[in-house]
Specification:
alpha+beta, Beta-Lactamase, 7 helices, rod-shaped
Length: about 290
């Protein structure tokens, strides 16, 4: 694998890591946003129900409350809505409609604790939030609950439960993630192209130097470094090429001048001037030793 390919692979890995992290963060944030949005919607609906039931009670229209609750339940994103009477209200006003009873453990728990409970149910196609909110008696609110109800301060008078569809938020988050991913991929491609264009001249001169050095290692000093288009690379190439030219001339001159001292000029010659010079010096050394004996 070449240096340029390694650099590109590292950059792609970094960008993929960044994209995955960004997608995870966006997904988590959108989920939190969906939950917060559903909470606000549920609390607003509960307040509307409380105010509406209070108005029905004050005006003596409690027998018409089922129509009012049905209209709210028919609103968009509200899948189900029901109210539950507490035993305090039942003792004072009697049993309500048949559907105004605790339907599950959540209703009973909120009735006992007076604390709001919510839970999310998510499937492959839908996201639903169940929220159960208590109505507590208070003498300090408007209107004063104690004027109509025989209850203690803070005692639960009833609860309102609703199931809200928050799939639209998840659908929006999916589209946002898709667009964000596409945008990130496009940016990544542009950056990779820019980086590749920027690195290419620098990488090319290294490959050219490698090729020239390989040729010199094999005894060919005639190849020259391609400096490319950058001023820095051209300066480096010029210095290396000047050095190679000097070496080539010096080696050739030494090879020619030393070789004339040999008596056996039919010996095999190498393509590498350094090898020839070394062989010639070895032969001259042998001749010198022979004459000394």
């Amino acid at each position: 694998m070449s240096t340029r390919q390694k650099v590109m692979l590292i950059l792609v890995g970094l960008f993929l890591t960044y994209c995955i992290a960004m997608i995870i963060i966006i997904t988590v944030n959108f989920r939190e946003f969906g939950i917060k949005s559903a909470e606000k919607r549920a609390k607003l609906t509960a307040e509307i129900v409380r105010s509406g039931l209070t108005a029905h009670m004050v005006n003596g229209m409690m027998d018409k409350r089922s129509y009012f609750l049905k209209q709210i339940e028919n609103n968009e994103n509200i899948s189900a809505l029901w109210v539950v009477r507490s035993q305090v209200v039942v003792k004072q006003f009697g049993e309500g409609f048949n559907n105004e009873i605790a339907r599950d453990l959540i209703d009973k728990r909120v009735m006992q604790t007076g604390k709001t409970v919510q839970e999310m149910t998510e499937t492959a196609t839908k996201s639903m939030m169940r929220m159960t909110i208590p109505f507590t008696a208070s003498a300090f609110g408007t209107p004063n609950c104690m004027r109509c109800h025989h209850a203690k301060e803070g005692e639960v008078l009833g609860v309102v439960s609703m199931v809200i569809d928050v799939s639209d938020v998840r659908g929006s988050s999916v589209m946002t993630i898709m667009y964000t991913t596409l945008f990130a991929v496009l940016i990544m491609l542009v950056i990779l192209l820019v980086v590749n264009r920027f690195l290419k001249p620098y990488v090319n001169i290294f490959y050219s130097i490698k090729e020239v050095m390989q040729a010199a290692y094999e005894g060919n000093y005639s190849k020259r470094v391609d400096g490319g288009v950058l001023m820095e690379s051209q300066a480096v190439a010029s210095m290396l090429n000047t050095l190679l030219t000097k070496l080539q001339k010096v080696f050739e001159e030494i090879d020619k001048k030393v070789y004339i001292f040999l008596q056996n000029k039919n010996s095999a010659q190498s393509n590498d001037p350094l090898v020839n010079i070394n062989n010639t010096i070895d032969q001259l050394s042998e001749i010198y030793k022979f004459k000394q004996t």
